[in-house]
Specification:
The chain is α/β, with parallel strands linked by helices and about 260 residues long. It has one domain: Spore Coat Polysaccharide Biosynthesis Protein SpsA, Chain A (Alpha-Beta Complex). About 40% of the residues lie in helices and about 15% in strands. It has helices at about 20-30, 50-70, 85-95, 115-125, 150-165, 180-185, 200-210, 230-250; strands spanning about 5-10, 40-45, 75-80, 105, 130-135, 145, 175-180, 215, 220.
Length: about 260
């Protein structure tokens, strides 16, 4: 496979209901974006057998449809076998992505971010930044469908994250991020988070490497069937922030001097 512009990992754990329509929409709009070929890597994170069957079916259907129209885009499935968490699934996908891919990315499988928004972000990728991250900030021309409780929890978490890492981000946890492959690929072994904290660990690492980061407001709708447990996960994320801070403080001296990608 050659000429891939970006490799987008879609981590999927028991997403047999929400993944198929997202993939179908991505494929339906693919022909409008042929200038920047994308490989979508669905990484099954040890799903239950019935969900795995659906993941296989929708991924195969999407791949066949793209091939039938001669599309430069690709879809393939990677099966982990055992559930290890979202972050582990994303790293597995990045490790198996096309080595020449200019951008590595991930997007949640729940459909909260539409196919049209994913393709729009692909079109915004260029040499001015090393990270392009979706942001659930309500601005003119964008729609955010999110419960008040989830919004308030997110603001508290964002405040703690800013205190710990000074990233200057409004929304670190939005489920879509693109990062320049040449910047992060040599340091994938630094990323150690297994589940929900990959976003912060990745952004903090890019900050240490001197990467240029941009938040892009997107349309977002709260999906049904969320796996987030408000109180329990909030506590885990707080201690996760402290864990990541300690870890990166240890590895920072081993990283190259702060540079910006060309």
């Amino acid at each position: 496979m050659t000429g891939i512009f970006s490799s987008v990992v879609i981590p999927a754990f028991n997403e047999g209901v929400r993944l198929p329509p997202l993939l179908a929409d991505l494929v339906a709009q693919a022909s409008l974006h042929n200038a920047r070929p994308v490989e979508f890597l669905v990484v099954d994170d040890g799903s239950a057998p019935d969900h795995l069957v659906r993941h296989r079916a929708c991924t195969e259907a999407a791949a066949l449809q793209l091939a039938s129209i001669g599309s430069p885009h690709r879809v393939r499935l990677i099966e982990c076998g055992v559930n290890q968490g979202k972050a582990s699934a994303v790293r597995r996908g990045w490790q198996e992505a096309v080595p020449e891919s200019a951008w590595l990315a991930f997007v949640d499988a729940d459909g909260a971010i539409s196919a049209s928004e994913i393709w729009r972000l692909v079109g915004l990728l260029d040499d001015r930044w090393d990270v392009l991250a979706g942001s659930r900030v309500l601005m003119a021309g964008h729609t955010i469908d999110r419960s008040l409780a989830r919004h308030l929890q997110g603001r508290v978490f964002a405040t703690l994250t800013e205190w710990a890492f000074r990233l200057g981000f409004y929304d670190t946890q939005c489920g879509v991020k693109f990062v320049r492959g040449s910047l992060v690929r040599p340091h994938l072994d630094v990323l150690q988070e297994r589940r929900w904290m990959l976003d912060i660990e990745l952004l903090a690492l890019v900050g240490l490497l001197g990467g240029r980061m941009r938040e892009e407001p997107i349309d977002w709708r709260e999906p049904g069937g969320s796996k987030v447990r408000p109180i329990v996960d909030a506590v885990k994320m707080f201690f996760g922030i402290l864990r990541i801070r300690r870890h990166l403080a240890r590895v920072a001296p081993t990283l190259p001097a702060r540079v910006s990608s060309p």
